[in-house]
Design brief:
Layout lengths: L39 E8 L11 E2 L4 E7 L6 E4 L2 E2 L5 E5 L2 E5 L6 E8 L5 E11 L3 E8 L19 E8 L8 E4 L19 E3 L2 E3 L37 E2 L5 E2 L19 E2 L7 E3 L6 E3 L15 E2 L48 E7 L4 E2 L2 E5 L2 E6 L3 E5 L2
Parallel strand pairs: 2-9, 17-20
Antiparallel strand pairs: 1-3, 3-7, 4-5, 4-8, 6-7, 8-9, 10-11, 10-21, 12-13, 12-25, 13-14, 15-16, 18-19, 21-24, 22-25, 23-24
């Protein structure tokens, strides 16, 4: 039987609810102001920072995001997680059927969700909110830009960019402030008779890798020539190694040493036939990207012998180091992009310019589903990987 008419005074501040009304409808001739309309939370969805649906069955106990779907919501609806009343900064009224929530700092566990209208009308979902510890461990690889190779009689190979790897604990969730990721540029090529330039630093949060050195200059790894030590920076292992030392036959025909790499020192130049600059120091291998990849190889040194002496190019170190040139054939190359490899030295007697160092790279990885936005995001073997080949930002989303 359908309810046809409700007259004034027949209902006193109670909710009207009903199921399976016979003909599916009723009419209201009059409702007094003290009639309370019902409130219902019909669905709870765990979401990301943008309140889009996710497949997770829990959310962060600090800064997690939840979407409530239902009916009867108002801007003055109070929402409780357990016995904690959420503040107005944690509750966003969207419409009478949608409310957005962000979780304050709560203990992990399972809670009731309670929505209360100003008149006391209440909807309760028992054991419906699960909050989990948002902390997680992130692996990092931070490689700085490689130094450029020297030109003409400064023809040392450029030092590799500094190399840092390790783990960092990320505590909290949904950081609204972006975390800066800096990817250092490689050192630039300079005209003849110039020693080259250092690469630029790369960094993430407090982790910084020093740009590779040019001729004899300190950096993440040093350039060749004088064989200066790499910048140890108080870290173990060191960011890089020393470059090789230049050699000469006493007649201004110089072969400069290779630049240092992250994994080892560059070699000295060779002043006997065939003349050859020092080989760049080897870089180091990392599997953080899902593949075994070498980074931060030193640049090969240039050879400064002309006819009738024979000179040949010198190889860069594994990990993107550029090839050092020779007077006979040139052949010098830049450090590889996004490896931090040092640039190859120019051919000395040919007064050739050295080559630029390779730019750096920052790679971040953690287990499980995506918890952040930024960089090129891929997955491999159960891990989410963020690769930055240029500077950008990382935003933790949960």
């Amino acid at each position: 039987m359908a309810l046809r008419t409700i007259k004034s005074g027949s209902i006193k501040n109670y909710s009207i609810t009903g199921d399976n009304i016979a003909d599916g409808s009723f009419t209201l001739d009059y409702l007094p102001n003290n009639v309370s309309y019902p409130i219902l939370v019909s669905n709870i969805i765990y979401t990301d920072l943008n309140f889009t649906n996710t497949a997770s069955n829990s959310t962060s106990s600090i800064g997690g995001f939840i979407k409530l779907l239902g009916s009867g919501f108002s801007p003055n609806t109070n929402v409780y997680i357990g016995d904690v009343l959420l503040s107005t900064t944690n509750v966003i009224y969207v419409s009478n059927s949608v409310i957005h929530l962000s979780t304050p700092n709560l203990a992990t566990g399972t809670y009731n969700l309670i929505a209360v209208k100003p008149d006391g009308t209440t909807s309760i979902r028992m054991n419906s909110i699960t909050l989990v510890d948002p902390s997680f461990t992130m692996e990092y690889l931070v490689v700085a830009g490689g130094g450029s190779g020297g030109s003409s009689f400064y023809a040392a190979g450029g030092g590799a960019g500094g190399y840092r790897e390790g783990n960092i604990l990320i505590s909290g969730a949904n950081f609204l402030t972006n975390l800066a990721v800096i990817v250092g540029a490689g050192g630039s090529s300079l005209p003849a008779d110039s020693p080259g330039t250092n690469g630029s630093n790369s960094s993430f949060i407090t982790i910084s890798a020093t740009g590779g050195g040019r001729e004899g200059a300190r950096g993440g790894s040093s350039g060749g020539g004088t064989g200066a030590a790499g910048n140890l920076g108080g870290y173990t292992p060191a960011e890089g190694s020393a470059g090789g030392t230049a050699t000469s036959d006493g007649a201004n025909y110089v072969t400069n040493g290779g630049g240092g790499g992250a994994g080892g020192a560059g070699s000295n130049g060779n002043s006997s036939s065939p003349w050859q600059g020092g080989v760049g120091g080897p870089g180091r291998y990392s599997t953080i990207s899902g593949s075994n990849v070498a980074y931060a190889g030193g640049g090969g040194g240039g050879a400064g012998a002309n006819s009738p002496r024979v000179s040949i190019p010198s190889s860069g170190g594994v990990g993107g180091g550029g090839t050092g040139g020779s007077w006979c054939s040139g052949g010098m190359t830049s450090g590889n992009v996004n490896t931090g490899g040092g640039g190859g030295g120019g051919a000395g007697s040919a007064r050739a310019a050295g080559c630029p160092g390779g730019s750096g790279i920052v790679i971040l990885s953690y287990s499980g589903a995506q918890k952040a936005i930024g960089g090129n995001v891929t997955t491999c073997l159960g891990k989410t990987i963020h690769t930055f080949t240029s500077s950008g930002n990382l935003c933790i989303t949960g």
